[in-house]
Every structure is written in C-alpha cells, then in structure tokens.
Amino acid sequence: MENQVVDAAILAGSVGAADLSLIGLFFRADAVVKAVLLLLILASFWCWAIIVEKILRLRRLIVQADDFEESFWSGGSLEDLYDRMGARPDHPMAFLFAAAMREWRRSMAGSAGSEQTLHAGLQERIGQVMQLTMNREVENLERYLGFLATVGSTAPFIGLFGTVWGIMNSFQAIALTKNTSLAVVAPGIAEALFATALGLVAAIPAVVAYNKFSTDIVRYANRLESFAGEFSAILSRQLEERSQDS
Q1: Alpha helices, DSSP H only, in 1-30?
Q2: Residue range 52-79, pLDDT digits in tens
Q3: Number of domains comprising the chain
Q4: CA-to-CA distance for 164 and 15, rounded, in angstroms?
Q5: Nearest CA among 128, 173, 182, 166 for reference residue 15
Q6: SS3 211
Q7: CA 140, CA 98: separation in Å to the nearest integer?
Q8: Residue 56 is part of which domain span?
C-alpha cells in the first residue's frame, strides 16, 4: 500500500494542473475509495428509482380511490358495481370492496340457520377479510421503504469511511515523500471530501422521501380504514333490513 501511496504522490506532484473534476477524482481514487463511491452511486440511483415509482404510484392510487368512491357513493347497486369491477381489481380500495363483496355473496348463497346467527357471523368474517386485505395492501405499498431508511441512515457513514481512508492516504503521502506541497495532498483530500459529499447526496433524498412516503401511506391507510368502516356499516344495515323483511 505504501508503494501505491508514493506512486500517487509522485504522479500528483509531476502533474502541473491536477484533474480535480468528479470523473478525474473517481479514476484517481484507490480501490477502497472507488468501492465506496460506486456503492454510494448505486444506492443513490436505486433510491431515486424507488422515489419516482412511489410518487407515480401514490398519485395513481389517489386518483383511482377518488373515482371508485364517486362510483360507490353514486347510489347505484353495490352488486352491479362489483360485477363491473370484475375478478381482478386494480387498486387497494377496490380490492377491499371486492373481498367484502365476495364474502357477502358466499354467505348469502350458503346461508343457513337463524338470521341473528348469520348476521353476527357475517359481520365478523367481513371485518376480518377487509382487515387482512387492508394489511396486505398497505404492506405492499410500504415495500422498499426500508431500503430508503437504510440508505438515509448509513450513507453518510459510508461516505465518512471513504473520507477517512482518503485523508489517511494523504497523510501517508506526506510522510513518505516528506513533501507538504498542496499538489501532493490535494487529490487525496479531494477524493475524501468527494466521498462525504456523495454520501450526503444519497442520504438526504432518501430521508426526505422516506418521511414523505411514510406520511402519505399512513394517510392512505386511514382512508382505507374509514372506507372499510363505512362499507361494513352499509352491509350491517342491509342485513338488518333482510331480517326485518323476513
């Protein structure tokens, strides 16, 4: 390693104007700093891919939920709405509705026993089905948020490791060449600071996006829970009406 430090120092001193561009710093860095930089670059790209996907998906889900609620509260038949949706809904609120309606139809088709027993059992089953469906859909929305949290908390320290390594190389270059010229130590220090900057570039958007998406998903989950409660109340009233008619 000492020979590499000496060679880097001699090369830096022999070049009149060192290339301190970002690309130049990357190619001049040693293997450890390069590995740190590549890791941070890949993490940053992956974070931005997750961020763009989450933004587009949440916007689409909000629009779809608005359209679905408009159809749901339009006063039309719930059975007709379920038939129009088909077997494969394309967003969580529709999944919630379809799961409850599926359980409703199964219970109505195979109902046996007293109306009171049917009412109590069906209410409990529908509540469980909607809760399980909602948990599954919210868990699907939260996918990859853990990666954002991990990058946000670890990227600065990974960049700091590259910084410490680069500064250590610079000090070794000073000790081995006995030359405190800025031309000797500047490239190593620049590489070190580049690692720190790249760690912050990866971490800051990840932390901001994680906080925003966590808040948006909680708000959307509350909306699903409110819909589930309202839909359960509607089905309960329909069961009571059936009991009174019979």
Answers
A1: 2-14, 22-28
A2: 999 999 999 999 999 999 988 887 788 8
A3: 1
A4: 24
A5: 182
A6: helix
A7: 17
A8: 2-245
